[in-house]
Amino acid sequence: MDVVFGTSEVTQRFLKIVFLGTLPFIGFSVQAKDRISVGVGADMLDLISYQEGQLQGYLAPVYQCVFDKIEPEVKFVELPLKRGFHHLGRGELDALLPLARSDHRDAVAVFAGELLTADYVFVSLRPLPPIELAEGLRYAIPRGFIGAQFIPNGNSVVTEVGSWSQLASMLKYDRIDAAVIPKLMVYDVFGAEGVNVYQQLAGRLPVSLYLSEFSQSNGVASEVLDAVEACRIDNPVSLITAEETSGGQEGDN
C-alpha cells in the first residue's frame, strides 16, 4: 500500500531531518567556545611546564592568572614550541606559550599582548668585550631559538643545540665563547653546577602567548587579551627566589 504525505507534513519531516543532522555541528561550535587547547613549551626547565595536571615553574603563576580570568575550560598539552607553533597555525591548538613576539610569528598567529618583558643575555665564562664590537666569536643557541636575532651579523660562528643543558657543556669545554639565553633561565642552566658566569644584555622582548587566528571568530581572543592586560607584571625576575638570582656575575662590559 502506498503512503502519501501532504505537502505540509513532508516539509515538517524534511526540516526535522535537517535539524537533527546539524546537531553535531551545533554541539561542536558550543564546545569550541567552552573549551580551548593550550600548548605549553616542553624542555623549558624550571621556567614553565605542565606536570601532574597543573602549570609549574617560575612563570606558572602569571600564566595561570590569565586562564583563571577566562570563561572557557582549558586543556593543556606539553610539546616542543616549534611543533606547537605549527599546530597553532593550522588551528589545531587555540594558544601556545611561552612565546616572545616576532614579525614571523605575527604573520601566522595573534599575539595576546605583553604579559611580561624578558631580558635575553649573552653568557660567557670569561669577560668579553662589548658584543657589538666583538668579531669572530663562537655562539650557541637552542635550535630555532628567537635569541638568534641578537647575535651580530658578520663572521660570527653560530651552533644550534638540541637542549638548554648543552650550552653549559659547550662553554665548559671551550667549544663556544658565549651562549644566548633568557636571563630568567641563567640559574637553571648554569647555577645548579655552581658555575660563575658573565652576562651581557643582548636585548629585550615582550613575552606572552600566541593565539590561533581562529580564536578571533569565537570570542576567545578578546577574553584572553583582556586577561593578559589584567595579569601583566613589570618585574618577572621577582618570580624567582633571591637565592637563584644571586648566582653568577654581571659583566662590566
Describe the protein.
With 253 residues, this protein is an alpha/beta fold. It has two domains: 36-114 and 207-235, D-Maltodextrin-Binding Protein, domain 2, CATH 3.40.190; 118-204 and 244-250, 3-Layer(aba) Sandwich (D-Maltodextrin-Binding Protein, domain 2), CATH 3.40.190. The chain has helices spanning 7-34, 60-68, 81-89, 103-106, 165-172, 186-190, 220-231, 242-245; strands at residues 35-41, 49-51, 54-56, 73-79, 95-100, 110-111, 116-124, 138-142, 157-161, 178-182, 198-211, 249-250. Strands 1, 4, 5, 6, 7, 8, 9, 10, 11 and 12 form a ten-stranded mixed β-sheet that branches. The chain has a two-stranded antiparallel sheet with strand order 2-3. A hairpin with a 2-residue loop joins β2 (49-51) and β3. The longest helix is centred in the N-terminal third of the chain and has 28 residues, at 7-34. The chain is elongated, with a radius of gyration of 24 Å.
Please name the defining characteristics of this protein.
253 residues, alpha/beta, D-Maltodextrin-Binding Protein, domain 2, 2 domains, 10-stranded mixed sheet, two-stranded antiparallel ribbon, 8 helices, disordered N terminus
Brief description of this entry?
By secondary structure, the protein is of the alpha/beta class. The chain has eight helices and twelve strands.
H-E string? HEEEHEHEHEEEEHEHEHHE
**Shape assignment:** elongated
Q: Which structural class matches the secondary elements?
A: alpha/beta
What is the class of the largest domain in the CATH system? Alpha Beta
